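Troubleshooting log. The previous run stalled partway through. Resubmitting the same two chains, unchanged.
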Amino acid sequence: MFFAHEGMNKQTKNALASRLMQSVTILVSLFIFVMIFVLLLKAEPLLASKPIFELLFSSSWHPSRGEFGFYPFIIGTLTVTCIAMLIALPICFLAAIYVAEYATGRIRAVVNSMIDLLAGVPSVVIGVWGVLAIVPIIKVVGTDAGQATTGYSVLAGGIVLAIMVFPSIISVSQEVLRSVPVSMREASFALGATKWQTVKHVVVRKSLPGIIAAMILGFSRAFGETIAVLMVVGNVPRIPSSIFQPAYPLPALIANNYEDVMSIPLYDSALLFAALLLLLVVAGFTLFGRLILVRLQRRSV
Amino acid sequence: MKNRKLEEQIFNALMLASTLIVVGSLLAVIGVVIVKGAPALSLSMITQTSNGGFYLGGAGGILNAIIGSLYLISASISLAFVIGLPVALYLNEYAARSKSADVVRLCLDVLYGVPSIVYGAFAFTLMLILGARASLLWGIITITLLIIPIMIRGIDEIIRTVPSKLREASYSLGASKLQTAFNVIIRQILPGIVATVLLALGRGIGDAASVLLTAGYSDSIPTSLNSPVATLPLAIFFQLSTPYPEAQERAYASAIILLGIIVMLSLSARFCTSRFSKFVIR
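Second attempt completed without errors. Output:
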């Protein structure tokens, strides 16, 4: 009882500690707004000098001439993220159902601990793997398909990203699937439905909003991933015409150019505008996904 | 009826294949990195710092990056824990089931989702505003901010599993909320705290994008909070960016070292979790 031996009485201490903890809590939750505010403050000079429409939809990126068109970077981010989601969504959906509904206890434990391990693999290591394994394969496949490609492409970025979002989508989906009450499954079996029919018509239907939320959270995770994508995507600020072409996502733009910001006017403002864009998009998606999950939880309690 | 059977079989096969792809991608990542990196792995990698010609393929190691990462993460974890624990306790012991606690959780979830490059850009901006330079101190600040939400939400989820009877028993003995929190709840969630800390540790030590902007890079072990510091993920990244095959191979070897540290962390997480479970009242 290390709080009970001093002179101050326990009510005073409790009240004091309560105040202190409350202040820390308020500070921590305000932090997201501080972050938005600071980035907005630094992006303001750029926003004041150029119309927002031109920033978002112009393709002309020449910082030294004062031209900041983010369109190729925005398209680069969206392309890579969408390829990643096209690969990851069906795989995660099916794998989550298998692990949650079909796998026996032991297999489930093994698969889940491997998924946890995958979640812990640093993005730079996944990037190294992408350079070693994915880029050469894409080079061969792309060249066979009649496309001139170095292998560093949006497809490589998409594959690498897909693997990085596997763990989070599968874990959340599994949780949602498992929250469907056993009695509902039993009712379906009692009506003569097979396992697959039960899964399809009862379990998946019931947990669809939650699975969609898991996918939205996966999307926002993929949207801002930096190092692994940067290593394999080629970083050419042009709109890719095929999946074998390189692109230049927003996070890579920030990571590659932050050192030069002081020498060119408005450049720092432009990079922080890119960070602000990332932050707002990701925050929006995360909020949306979380709210779906919170609502589901409330309904099931 | 036949169609139904067929459908069932097709989906069974697809589900199994998907699970195998997920598991297989983990094995592929680890396998490829080990096979490619093992030949370049040597004792000097972890006992020497990267002197001059290291990135041109010369002799040396990445001790500076290993030590740098350890400095960075141990300071960040301690700070994030000191800030995070009270918040998690407050959310559950003082503000339990309130609307405001839900709002705080939502804010934290959004923070959790914010990409690490944005944390880097934010800290970088503060650095510019204050006229500071990239250093160990700013790396610590960045990583601390990055892992605070992981820490709080992790501990928060665990405290939520503590049965309310335990609290009631403590209150009925005349204990205040503070005494209950620190003498009963913490003991109860100790295994979970360890697991959360190690999760945050893994996330923090593996992150490259945020410290790229704020920690700088140095070939020697940092001597003060103001000196720039090398980190393991960035060491891998920079070695791979060189055009020299020797340096690139050592990037793969460094990746093995980083993976090894992560695996050791997750194994010790398991060990500690079972070890500390003896304090838990069931």
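Takeaways: Chain A has a mean pLDDT of 90. Strands of chain A lie at 61-62, 67-68.
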